[in-house]
Amino acid sequence: MDYVNRKKMSDPALLILASLAEGDKHGYAIMEDVQAFAGERLGPGTLYGAITRLEDRGWIRPVNADERRRPYRLTAEGRKQLQTQLTSLDQIVKVGQRRLKQI
Amino acid sequence: MKAAVLSFLVRLYPAVWRRRYEAEFAALLEDTQPSWSDVFDVLKGALQMQFAKSLTLKFAAAFGLLGAIVAGITAYALPDRYMATGIMTVHSQDSPATSNTTFHLAQTVFSRPALTQVIEKHDLYRSERANQPLENVVDRMRRDIRLQLTPLNTIEVSFVHTDRHKAQVVTTEILDRFVKENLIRKVNSTLQIIDTPSLPQASISPNRTTIAMIGLGGGALLGVAIASIRRMKLRKAI
């Protein structure tokens, strides 16, 4: 069965989690990294909207730092959620590619 | 220019959010070279955060105020309507006579040809006559006329109109038509006008305070509903 039961995550949230999977980053570093690996520029309002929601859910947490450019870290739960999202996306990609080859 | 606008827009975020994120958000804005699309992005982010974090009360107040303003403007755009009232008395050898007499006379006085004459004579409902068939205008006039029988064998006749002078004149004419029609019929009852309509001083509608209050209440309820739905959607989103 090709159907994947996946709770949809917004693109900015997924991109932020993927960026933080590499290591701790502050807002501007996330923005630059996402642009580099996904070719998508997250606006400041969109970026911090997603950071707020992710932190509320406990999927990321701020690293203790007194500096204004506060870095964020992926939590264990955030890593699990990212893994789930990527697995289901991977399945969608595989199914799509297989069907394209059948045409 | 953009920096000043962004600095203003950051203040639109809820206070609870700013206490936690304002310093690092300001640092991010310093690091980026914001474009105008970033300015709109920050505005959108501020509005979404207001929906997600703000108190429902704030939305109820904002929408309530908006509703009151819209309702107030609408109420002031509506014309004042004045009601003139005259009273007739019925003397009859037959009893009970008032309702029968009034019913038969009213059939004639409020007939379509009779009311058409009144409408044209006093130039009533000019804009309606320009856009609608005369039948509709006559129906409209019937709705503006009130006829009330009292236990003391008197009949109150009222007419409501946006021009208080016309309200008075037309009510007087309707009363006269009742009396004349009664004389023509030569029935065993007499009609006598005991109170001629006076010039109305105060309008009977619209009640602008009530309309503004309805707008306030409706707007507040709408604000609560929108805030609740939006908050649920934003909390579900990741």
Question: How would you describe the overall organization of this protein?
Answer:
- The complex is a heterodimer of chains A (103) and B (238).
- With 103 residues, chain A is mainly alpha-helical.
- Chain A contains four helices and two strands.
- In chain A, helix 1 packs across helix 2.
- The model of chain A is unreliable at 1-5 (pLDDT under 50).
- Chain B is built from ten helices and four strands.
- Chain B has a four-stranded antiparallel beta sheet with strand order 2-3-1-4.
- Chain B has 238 residues and is an alpha+beta fold.
- Helix content of chain B is 66%, strand content 13%.
- The A-B interface holds A 7-10, 13, 26-28, 31, 43-49, 51-54, 57, 68-70 and B 17, 21, 23-29, 31-32, 34, 37-38, 41-46, 48-49, 52, 234, 237-238.
Give a short synopsis of this structure.
The complex is a heterodimer of chains A (103) and B (238). Chain A is mainly alpha-helical and 103 residues long. Chain A has 4 helices and 2 strands.
Low-confidence stretches of chain B: none
* Share in β-strands of chain A: 5-15%
Largest sheet geometry of chain A? 2 strands, antiparallel
Oligomer: heterodimer
Q: Overall 3D geometry of chain B?
A: rod-shaped
Query: Pairing-aware structural class of the strands and helices of chain A?
Result: mainly alpha
Strand content of chain B: 5-15%
Mean pLDDT of chain B: 87
**Element pattern of chain B in H and E:** HHHHEHHHHEEHEH
Helix content of chain A: 55-70%
Taken from the alpha-carbon principal axes, the silhouette of chain A is elongated
Cα-based radius of gyration of chain A, to the nearest Å: 15 Å
Q: Quickly give the structural class of chain B.
A: alpha+beta
- How many strands of chain A? 2
